[in-house]
Amino acid sequence: AQYKPFDVLARYMSYVTTSTNEFYTCPPANLNGKPIQRMCYLSDYKIKGYDKSKQSKIAISEDLLRYEIVYTELRKIRNTLNLPAKANISLLTLNDLHTWNLLFSEILKMYDAIKKIPLISDGYPLTDVNKVHSYCNKIMAADIKSNMNINTYNKLRASLKKVYNHYDPLPTHYHQVVRQMLIDKYNSLIIK
Question: Scanning 115, 133, 139, 150, which has its CA 20 to 30 A from the CA of 81?
Fold first, then answer.
């Protein structure tokens, strides 16, 4: 099936590293029409996904999903590039293939940490999709946690994670298709 960029983005539920951060749907820029963007806000950066073809209003036959990391603090960039705390960063920093490889590695690492629910049309049983949704959605997880003791919750959480971990790496999982497209696009842009 052919999916629109927002069909994919709407399934980005949370970003999990040391804590769980939700993805939010952003209102359209002119407050008319349908949303085209989802974003996750963190202290040093934002993860942003949007329908680039609608945002730029370009007339093309393809839908363009744009996925980007917006750094808001230099310390995060320095950390990503393995630079000392006071290192200068300039356009010359970008003139190095190693820098681009580090940045792309970080993009993939962040993409992999996004908890994504599968598209039901991928042929997965609805009960499993619901389990994955329960695992990925921060609010749903909090609701479940507030209604049971911690041991029961931890066991349930482990079983939900097991279902998520079963589907997430499958090559037929649409989000893995998007991941592979990120890799292919990067490889086509980089001169080796």
Answer: 115
- pLDDT tens column, 72-131: 999 999 999 999 999 999 999 989 999 999 999 999 999 999 999 887 666 788 899 899
Contacts of 107 (CB under 8 A, 6+ apart): 67, 69, 182
Euclidean distance between CA atoms 108 and 149, whole angstroms: 36
CA distance 116 to 13: 6
- For the entire predicted model, the pTM comes to 0.87
Q: How far apart are CA 116 and CA 167, in angstroms?
A: 10
Select from 182, 24, 40, 181 the least CA-distant residue to 103: 182
* Residue 10 near residue 137, CB atoms below 8 Å: no
Distance of CA 55 to the CA centre of its chain: 19
Alpha-carbon separation of residue 20 from 41, 77, 81, 177, 191 (angstroms)? 11, 21, 24, 24, 36
